[in-house]
Structures are given as C-alpha cells and as structure tokens.
TrEMBL record:
Residues 205-270 form the HTH luxR-type domain. The keyword Transcription regulation applies. One of its GO terms (biological process) is regulation of DNA-templated transcription. InterPro entries: Sig_transdc_resp-reg_C-effctor, Tscrpt_reg_LuxR_C, WH-like_DNA-bd_sf. This is HTH luxR-type domain-containing protein. It holds the Pfam family GerE. SMART domains: HTH_LUXR (SM00421). Keywords: DNA-binding, Transcription, Transcription regulation. PROSITE patterns: HTH_LUXR_1, HTH_LUXR_2. CDD domains: LuxR_C_like. GO terms for molecular function: DNA binding. It comes from Spirosoma telluris.
Length: 272
C-alpha cells in the first residue's frame, strides 16, 4: 500500500481534531446547558465545518445520544450508499449490513460502554475519546468495508453524561489483515486523557489497561521514527529477537496488515 494513502488517512484524523475544537466552540453559542436552542442554525453551521473532511470512504457527523439519531451527517450517502426507509430506520438498516460474525457487536459494545462508564467517578468524566476498530460491514451494493471510528463528546449533562458526540468513521480495509475477524475498542478520558479502558472481542475482557504495553509503545515509537530492529534493540537494551516478537504480537493483537499499518492504527487511536 502506498505510504501516501496512509499519510492522507492520518492527516484526515488530525484535521478532525481541529474540527472537533470548532464544534465545541460552536456548541457554546447554541446550547443552553444540555439543550440545543436552535437546531436548524446549529446544523447549518456544523455542516459547513464537517464539509472540510469529506470523501467516499469517510463519513462525519454529530450524534444525539438521547434520541440515538444523528442530527448532522456529511458524506453518509456516498459512504453507505442510498438507504431506503425513514430517518428513524436508518440506524437499523446500517446495522443490518454487519457481517455475520459481527452481529453481536452493537449489544456487546454498548454493554461494555455502559458498564465502564458507570465505574468512572465524576471528577474523571471529562475529555472522552472513543475508538472502535475492525468492524466489518457489507454495504447494500455488496462492497465490503472495515471501519475505524472516532467519537468525541462535546456536550454533557449536569452528571457529566455526554449527550452529543462528534463522530468520524473511515473505511480502513487496507490497514487490516483480511483474516482478522475481531474488533477492539479503546476509550481514553480524564483531565489529561490519562485513563484508559479497552475491550477486545477475541478475549471479551473488560480491561483497565491499554491495548499495547509500555514496552510495546516504546518499540512502536522507535519504529515510527524509522529506527531498524538493531537500532531499537540497542536503544532499549533488549535483543533484536525481543523487538521482533513484540512487533509480531502487536500486529496480531491490533490486526494490522503490516508494520506501517500498525504504526498508523496506533497513532489514530492515540496510543503513540
């Protein structure tokens, strides 16, 4: 895979962070506590922001967690194709596109999210970032995709339960191995985004640790800096064999197609 494609995907994710900050500023004008005062004007201005990152392999939107419906979407028609039925039926139809081995994803992921959110104390319930990776769909036209999504709440109620999130979904089939049939979720939060909760469907474990260990992150950071195996081993005072084993384990766990894709996924999910 051309490295320019990898870089373009990473650039899009970096741009979404800038757009998120502008959505937060926009919400300060339109929200009164957790109530959206002028929906039509907010939607019009939000659409203008979201148009900045748009493509046939990505969809961006703002999701209302009270109604469980998006209030703004950009790129959805090109991403999912034409979806028949009402707006209320849209989510159900999209979920019907899930590949058979992912049919439990909606229930399992929501159950995980509810359980972990209930455990988080009030003072830590800030700066949430959610990443989902590896969920496979077969679109209405028969094309198969594998998604990576990023969700960032920007509006909370008095108990710091988020009510609206800014979401970005990208087809990353080219980053994952074709025979990787698991998915993983990473949630970071806290004043400095210092806390992490994760879930991996291969094990079903609810973990309070990251998907990559501290040592693995050190190695991956070195790889991202273009150090070769021997240079990494010398810098970290480990053997080249240990470097290779860690690299293989990370690729297997995250489902990355190769080392370049591994670095990309880790950056997109905020692990390095």
């Amino acid at each position: 895979m051309n490295k320019d494609v990898y870089q373009a995907t990473l650039n899009n994710f970096r741009e979404t962070d800038n757009i998120y900050k502008r959505v937060v500023k926009l919400s300060e004008r339109f929200f009164e506590e957790d109530i959206l005062a002028n929906t039509s004007n907010f939607v019009r201005e939000a659409e203008g922001l979201l148009e900045r990152v748009k493509g046939t392999d990505a969809v961006m939107g703002i999701f209302n967690h009270k109604t469980w419906q998006p209030i703004v979407e950009v790129g959805a028609d090109k991403f999912w194709g034409e979806i028949p039925g009402s707006k209320e039926d849209r989510i159900k139809i999209i979920l019907s596109y899930l590949e058979k081995e992912y049919e439990n994803f909606p229930v399992d992921s929501v159950k995980w999210q509810i359980n972990v959110l209930n455990e988080i104390p009030y003072d830590q319930r800030v700066n949430f970032k959610f990443h989902h990776c590896g969920i496979r769909y077969k679109r209405g036209d028969g094309t198969r995709i594998c998604i990576f999504s990023q969700g960032m709440p920007f509006q909370y109620d008095k108990d710091r339960n988020f009510t609206y999130t800014f979401n970005y979904v990208q087809n990353i089939s080219y980053l994952l191995k074709k025979d990787f049939h698991s998915y993983w979720i990473r949630m970071s939060y806290g004043v400095k985004n210092e806390f992490v909760r994760t879930y991996h469907s291969a094990t079903g474990e609810y973990a309070s640790r990251d998907l990559l260990s501290s040592r693995e992150k050190e190695i991956l950071t070195c790889i991202a800096d273009d150090l070769d195996t021997k240079e990494i081993a010398d810098r970290l005072f480990i053997s080249p064999n240990t470097v290779g084993n860690h690299r293989s384990n990370m690729i297997e766990r995250l489902g990355a197609r190769d080392t370049t894709a591994l670095v990309q996924l880790a950056k997109m999910a905020g692990m390095i």
